[in-house]
Amino acid sequence: MRRSLTLLAQSLVTKRGFCTKPEKIVASVLFERLPVVVPKIDPVVYAFQEFSFRWRQQYRRRYPDEFLDKSSSSGKGDYHIEYEPAPRITEADKTNDKKSLQRALDRRLYLLLYGNAYGSSRKPVWHFPEKVYDTEETLRKCAESALQSVLGELSHTYFVGNAPMGHMVIQPTDNAQDSGYKQFFFKSQVIATNKFKIGKCEDFVWVTKDELLDYFPEQAEYLNKMIIS
Amino acid sequence: MFRIGRTQQPLQSLTHQFLQRCSVSGTAKGKGKDGQAKKRSKVITKKGKKSDPEDPSSKPLSRQDSEKYRLYDQCINAPTPVRYLKPKDRAREAEREKLGLLSKGRIREKEIFKKGGRQAMGVPDEPMIIGTPGLDLITLGLVDVDKIPKYELTEEDGKKLAKEYSRVLMRKHRARQAAESNLLRCKKEAIEALPENLKKAALVPDLTPFPAERFMATLTPPIEGYINKIKEAAKRSSGMEKIR
After folding, report:
1. Which of B132, B139, B165 to substitute to test the interface with A, most A CBs within 10 Å?
2. Which residue has the higher pLDDT, A110 or B18?
3. What predicted TM-score, i.e. pTM, was given to this entire model?
4. In this predicted complex, what is the ipTM?
5. Burial class (CB in 10 A: 0-12, 13-18, 19+), A131
6. Is A197 left (phi over 0), alpha (psi -120 to 50) or beta?
7. Residues 20 to 49 of B: which have CB under 8 A from any A CB?
């Protein structure tokens, strides 16, 4: 009777797919800086806009200047300052300085760290800021603490939502310790700064999406789906 | 702060008709209960009782008044470089010209043509710049000048451009929609892969408001220290605040 009960229990457990050992969960953070400048306009789009502007100007009525002056008179308290617009391609672009946030202003930049990651065990690799889930309440708090350990404080970050935006199942390599784990990505954005002090690692870079795919050759396909441009 | 030149602002024409007419029956819009056409409230001016104190045709005009009436005239009959006519109207105008009757619009059109056509009136054949002269899209580097296709200001060129424009934008839109649905799918799969208690926490919607300091992407990158200059200039121009 007892044996059948244990057999039943075991079969139930294996049927439902519970693993006997708790799976390791790692929360990693995709820290992105949103584009600062409007993206480039396609020449076809520009051509059509210009054409349609001129076409409409053809049929527009021309009113006398005195009539228009009354409506567009300057308001009281206007001040005039010489304005020299800042160039969209900064020096960081020309020198290709990957540590600066001023590179590639019309694209998103993602943070990558170089150091000891969880899954690589002692060999330094390029990885996202990450932390193993221990006993915090939610995975988002774990991710926040991960970012905090890198940046020092979270006043200039904004985590988007409570849920992860993607996950990867890392298969255990053939070591003695089976290091299979699940890596969950959380999205967070840079708010209102230009410089960060990145600690807790040997090296860091801010990369665009294409460069990011170079850094992770095997996971490039999934990252391509997870990140838009 | 940056005043856009007058020629760049398209104005609405003043050709509102004062009485709306139904396009088919020619009557005022709508029919009353007994089938009669509805009468909109009209403002009836008393004719003949009190003649205008400044009657333009009879008394000699002061210069201010003549200027005023000239301004009104120019506004009401404002010219356009190219006259817009539907093909039926164009055929009608051609017929009338054969008979020798010329409408005012046709006369004006001929005058404008003599003076040089629409090129003289400000619609050049070469592409115009979009935006204020220092800050237009080409000088800022937003468009590659060499890759812009060449075109004239004709209808079929316009149609070709419109087709290309629509094709390019639709392609981008579809790619973006596909990418976004991929994102959502990744998110759903990730939530499914979480263990039970974390899944419940992840499914709670995060209703805290977005941070106010998140900036929109602008045309040119922000210059450091510029906001202080503006504040100073504003303080100076608004006069001194407190003189105690």
Report:
1. B165
2. A110
3. 0.72
4. 0.79
5. buried
6. beta
7. none
